[in-house]
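Fold these two proteins, one after the other.
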Amino acid sequence: GTAVAPRHVAVLAATGRDAAFVHPRLRVAVLSTGDELVEPGSPLGFGQVHESNSYALVAAAREAGAVAWRVRSVGDDPGGALLGTLREQARAADVLITSGGVSAGAFDVVKEVLAATGDVEFASVAVQPGKPQGLGAVDGVPIFTLPGNPVSAFVSFEVFVRPALRAAMGHARPDRPSVTAVAGAGWRSAPGKRQFVRGVLTAGGDGPPTVVPAGGHGSHLVSDLGRADCLVDVPEEVTAVAAGQPVTCLLLDGDAAGTGGGVAP
């Protein structure tokens, strides 16, 4: 369960071990979908947005210890390149991740194409953000299909994908470390949904730290996500968090459990 760091390599060599069995890094291919997506550095036209999800998800998978790469985004045409691209990537990857196209809209190509194969199941999960999710396989390779809104994609990775990747790579503690903090402000939470609020922690001196929301709750508010250093985990039965109330925060920075880039023996 230990991620092999340089100090562990020193111990192995000093005790005469010229090799050790480890869990390999998972190879992860990431792909975004949407006709509206434009590469960063290119000008935007009407109704277009810069593609950010795949860049964020590749970085997140690498931070979790995987070898990850980005596949150029594909459009919303069900008869287009999506399935062929995924099957091509499945020949090299251990895990596939997509973002976008999993809701109930007219152009949700991922759900339309992969549901037809019978190997991927789509469901509405009681979390906020990140309600639409899909899980299954393409040619035997596991695939996670995440929502298209940037914050939803990121939170979905943290909640569903990251622990799975790290567990598969043998980490004894695949989850993010957490701390108990005191809410510095109050906010509402949707009934029946487990809410993950982007939060900013402040050291509390001799007491617990204080946490406040990093802006609004909208799934498109990427700048607020960038300011967050934790996710406040609000249970399904809680409909309001009051100022001064203890809350559980998943730490996004400074993982004391040792995320690193290592692999677990």
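Now the second one:
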Amino acid sequence: MYDVIGDIHGYADELEALLRGLGYEQRNGTYQHPTRTAIFVGDLIDRHPEGQLRTIDIVRRMVDAGSAKIVLGNHEFNAVAYATEHPSGGYCRAHKEKNLKQHRAF
């Protein structure tokens, strides 16, 4: 069975509360469930400036442990494009003020 989770937007405290509410427990440094797998459907980052890296850490540990899978969301795609140099110069996502503000905290 799967638990589909999306639109966390960096709210790590709320993510941990949700996981505990679904019966996931901390074991070996990560959240695990005895019979279910979490499926994260994107938008792990973008809004909560203090929780984005912690959210990524929680989800990454779960994926590495086999207790979760993830589908890239548009906010993760934008972050990768922002950090990826384009072959013809510049970056795949422009480094304009709007984008800089979005990615600064992350």
